[in-house]
Design a protein that fits this description.
The complex is a heterodimer.
Chain A: E1 2-3, E2 11-12, H1 15-25, E3 34-35, E4 41-42, H2 47-59, E5 66-74, E6 82-89, E7 94-99, E8 105-110, H3 113-122, E9 124-125, H4 148-153
Parallel strand pairs in A: 5-9
Antiparallel strand pairs in A: 1-2, 3-4, 5-6, 6-7, 7-8
Chain B: H1 5-20, H2 25-28, H3 30-50, H4 52-63, H5 69-95
Helix pairs in contact in B: 1-3, 3-5, 4-5
Classes of the chains: A alpha+beta, B mainly alpha.
Chain lengths: ~170, ~110
């Protein structure tokens, strides 16, 4: 499906990418979903649901209070960064992500407060946080004095060499 | 940023008023929108901090190979969905005056990069 909107590059929403994404993000588009044991949602990856999601995205620019980011960055600061175009529904905080070089649809999701603010100020979405999903450039390594565990629990991790098992 | 509950409530009400007029604060006044975002982030971090043991447990189970990457992603999505919903409910309660003397826990900043 093509998305042509005056003043912006032509974008393309691929069927297979939509079908791949609809499982986790169908709920964002008010498609039928079930809640899994872990709290996430699941929408059936049917052709019908994929097409519904594609129509939803094509219609996004026609909504009220939609902001385009034609010179955005996706996951800036990581080894997966790319230049991106975003269509962002300011009211619902739903964003559609497109790769600028090809105009192809990548993903869609709902942003939390922090992502919303970062996008509005920097034009970037995701990345740069040093978490497990990607290798962040110029990110200092985690040390025993400042580990995820110590940050979360306030307990400093004990190095195994300090434990006497004899 | 110093959290200011009175200003946060004022901005939440202003944002809601604009929504009722089919407008958006970001388009109308970016400075105010940014200030509102900062307060909303303080709420988000406060709520996420309360879930920190669940986050740590999921990470621990993944690192100990009790759950695979797919299940970890599922749990992260689950926590994220819960976080967004809880934040929305909390800000609604805040703007309606049900929450008195809200003070974000300074420690909650520790998970701000997560």
């Amino acid at each position: 499906m093509k998305l042509n909107h005056e003043g912006h590059s032509e974008l393309n929403i691929g069927f297979w990418q939509s079908k791949f994404k609809v499982g986790d993000y169908g709920a964002v588009h008010e498609l039928e979903y079930t809640v899994k044991d872990n709290g996430g949602t699941k929408t059936k990856k049917t052709n019908k649901n994929a097409l519904e999601m594609m129509r939803f995205i094509v219609d996004m620019p026609n909504r009220e209070n939609v902001q385009w980011f034609d010179d955005g960055m996706y996951q800036a600061g990581t080894d997966r960064e790319f230049e991106a175009i975003y269509i962002y529904d300011l009211d619902k905080r739903i964003i559609a992500v497109f790769k600028k070089s090809t105009g192809s649809f990548v993903s869609i999701r709902q942003l939390d407060a922090k992502e919303d603010a970062e996008l509005k100020v920097t034009g970037n979405l995701g990345g740069g946080k040093g978490w497990f999903s990607g290798q962040v450039k110029n990110f200092s390594p985690v040390t025993p004095m400042n580990s995820f565990e110590s940050d979360v629990t306030d307990i400093t991790t004990i190095d195994n060499s300090q434990i006497d098992n004899s | 940023m110093t959290y200011n509950q009175k200003k946060h409530i004022e901005l939440l009400k202003r944002s809601k008023d604009l929504k009722n007029q089919r407008k958006n604060l970001f388009i109308e006044n970016r400075e105010e929108d940014l200030e509102l975002s900062e307060y909303n982030i303080a709420v988000k971090e406060y709520i996420f901090w309360q879930d920190r043991y669940q986050v740590a447990l999921s990470m621990e189970n993944f690192l100990n190979r009790k759950i695979d990457g797919k299940e970890l992603c599922g749990r992260v999505y689950g926590l994220r969905r819960k976080l967004i919903n809880t934040c929305e409910k909390f800000t609604l309660e805040l703007s309606s005056g049900k929450v008195k003397d809200f003070k974000p826990d300074g420690k909650s900043k520790k998970l701000c990069g997560f």
